[in-house]
Each structure stands twice: as C-alpha cells, then as structure tokens.
Amino acid sequence: MSFKTLDDLPGDCAGKRALVRVDLNVPMADGIVTDRTRILRVVPTISELSQKGIKVVLLAHFGRPKGNVVPEMSLRPVAQALEEELDHRVDFAADCIGEAAAKEIGEMASGDVVLLENTRFHPGEEKNDPDLARAIAENGDIYVNDAFSAAHRAHATTEGLARLLPAYAGRAMQAELEALEKGLGTPAKPVVAIVGGAKVSTKIDLLQNLVRKVDALVIGGGMANTFLAAKGVNVGKSLCEHDLAETANAILKEAAEAGCSIVLPVDAVVAREFAAGAESETVDVNAVPADAMILDVGPASVAKVNGWISQAATLVWNGPLGAFEIAPFDTSTVDAARHAAAETSAGALVSVAGGGDTVAALNHAGVAGQFTYVSTAGGAFLEWMEGKELPGVAALSA
Asked: Active-site residue among 76, 127, 163, 199?
C-alpha cells in the first residue's frame, strides 16, 4: 500500500498545526506511568515535527470511559512522563475540542507541544462521529497518525480526521507498516509463522489466513493440544477445546491444499499441576498420562521448530509455545526465540513479532531487541495477521 510519511510534508510547514494521533494508553499506578514503552515509540515523530517548527497537538485515548468524563482516566498525568522523555515542555488542554482546546492551541508558538484530554471522553470518538471529527479538525492544518495500535478501529481520531485533513503516517506508524509488509505483504520466502496461545477459538481467522500465505505454520501453546486431540491424540487433562476438533481438521485440510506444512509438537513437557517447581517430565505426545497436562513442548519439538526457523527467510510470530510464565515451562519459547534472534542478527532472517504475550515472552528471553521488528500493538497486529483491512491505515492511503 502507498501512504505519505513525514518525508512528504511540504517545506513550508513551520507554524502549521499538526494533529498527531498517538497511543498513550499506558499502564498507570497511583497516577504514575509504570511502563513508558508506548511513550518512547512516539517520541521520534513528536520531536521531528517540533524541530521543523510545527505546532504539535497530540490526540490520544486512555482507558474505556465510554463517552463519559472519568477523572481517573485523564491524560494529565501522562503529560509529565511524556515531557520527561521528550525533554521538551508539554502543555495540557482539559478537552480535545471547544474553548479549552482552542485557547491552548491558539497560544502555541512554533515547535510547541500540547496534549489534549482523552478523546474518549466524547461519545462521538468511538462512533466516528463526523461532527466530532470536524470540531477537532478545526484546530489543525495537517493530520499525522502515529498510533498503529488503534488503527483497527474506525474512530473519529483514527479514521475520520484522515478524511478531513492532509494525512501522513508518523515514524512509528511508518516503521510498523514497513515491517508488516516485509512480514506478510511481500515477504522473502520461505515464510514460517509461529502461532501459540491458549485457545484456537480466538485465532480461527488468523490460522485460516496464514495457511494460505506461509510455507510452514508452527502451532504451539494450548492451541496445539486442540489440534493433537483432533488427530486422535489423548492429551490428558491439558487445556483443550475438544468441541473445535472439526474446525482444527478443516484448517489442517486447508493447509494441505495450500501446500502449507503444519508443525505440531512431537513431544511434550507434562506435569500434574501448573505451579513453580512442579514435578514434570518429557514424554512423547502419544504417551501423555491421563492425569497430566501438557505445559510446554519438548526438546524434539523445539529442534523441529528451530529447523524451520533456520530454513526461513521470514518469520512471523504471535504467541508462546508453552506456559512461559512459569519455569521450567518457558524452555521451548526461550530456546526458539533465541534461535530466531541469532538468525536475525546473522542477517539470515527477517523476524516480525507482536501481541502482548509474545512481547512479554521475547523480553523474558532477552531477545526482543534483536528481532527485526516487535509490535506493541495487540488487536491491530492480530487483525493485520488475520488479513483484515485496518480502517486507520486504509484512511492514510485514501
């Protein structure tokens, strides 16, 4: 897809007002930001615009106030954390439209930065109300979307504004879209996907899309149990959606027809309880004790996964291979992640990963920084992997 970036801004933008949609929906505790990852992602775009002499007006949501003013969901505390990371003053307006916003923006000098209050305090935001979009657009000359994580929603500030003002992708959005294009858009082949997690039911669309696009699909986590059971394997007391056997078999059939290899575990680490220090053993998947549960894939399975990673030119990863939160059930995920990181560092692999659990797992393995790209977007990343059009992205290419 084609879209304009900050490189396409006119040369005479100094003094112009840029409405910049960012994701500042960060973890908070007692009014303090506890994780600044999302703030750090948007700093380059804000700084670049400010240095060009553009007036930077930030739009963001926080939490789910559902169209009501909820003081606990104010963005005011985030302004301080943003100011610290930018090393630049950040003013705050108590509303994203009306007199409060107009006054604060009207007093801006070139290069100033102001954060407007939570856009979701207005019911029209999530309804993509054109009146709200127009009211916000009155305070801007150009629109920049730097919030890929909110791009799967057609809201006033993610889709509506892009139809009203000259629209550009910010640096974080640009990096995300370029990485995703390398992942599944026009990837170097062969392409291998790793999909893990607890339930097949939450990723049916994802699996059905991937089997038509990748050369091999590695299925791990609780999802693998459902596929094993569908093939007649007794998985004991493991997490398993037995009622989705027909769906699993249909996906296996689609994969075969598309020439996609499905990679399932051949051995497993089992235990009688999911707890730190629980006694565990490695068994063949056809020998899972009736009173045990599969909590990780075994070493033979990891060797298969790593073999596929070594063959791949592109890797797309969403979801852990096992219950990585508790040792020793993190072994396979850590081993595969480190192998993928090594292949990436050697220049042999383009690796794109995303999803909350995936990011946590890669951080746990200490290799998130070694992947080609790690997306912090949850729902948007998943919908992209499912092959769905993201309204916020589509509006940029309109």
From this structure: 199
Hunting for tokens 């995936």 — which residue is that?
358
Handedness of CA 355, 359, 361, 367 (dihedral sign): positive
User: Distance (Å, rounded) from C-alpha 82 to C-alpha 77?
Assistant: 9
Give residue-wise pLDDT tens across range 90-143: 999 999 999 999 999 999 999 999 999 999 999 999 999 999 999 999 999 999
Is-catalytic flag, 199?
yes
Sequence letter at residue 116: L
Task: Confirm whether 298 is a catalytic residue.
Answer: no
Taking alpha carbons only, the member of 169, 253, 195, 197 closest to residue 386 is 195
- Based on the structure, what is the number of domains in the chain? 2
Q: Are strands 350-354 and 314-318 parallel, antiparallel or unpaired?
A: parallel
Please give the structure tokens belonging to residue 282.
Answer: 């490695």
Q: Whole domain around residue 165: which residue ranges?
A: 6-171
328 and 355 share a domain? yes
Q: What is the 3-state secondary structure (H, E, C) of 193-251?
A: EEECCCCHHHCHHHHHHHCCCCCEEEECHHHHHHHHHHCCCCCCCCCCCHHHHHHHHHH
Query: Does residue 177 form part of some domain?
Result: no
Sorted by sequence, the CB contacts under 8 Å of residue 286 that are 6+ apart come out as 233, 234
Residue 356, domain CATH: 3.40.50.1260
Select which of 356, 378, 387, 388 is catalytic: 356
Q: 172-194: per-residue pLDDT in tens?
A: 999 999 998 899 889 999 999 99
Which tokens go with 332?
Answer: 């396979």
286 domain-assigned: yes
Choose, from 38, 120, 171, 203, the residue flagged as catalytic. Answer: 38
Is residue 76 part of the annotated active site? The answer reads no
Q: Is 170 a catalytic residue?
A: no
Question: Which residues does residue 351 pair with via DSSP β-bridges, in sequence order?
Answer: 315
CA distance 388 to 44: 28
Say which residues have a Cβ less than 8 Å from residue 343's Cβ, sequence separation at least 6. 309, 310, 312, 315, 349, 351
Quick check: 252 and 207 in contact, CB under 8 A?
no
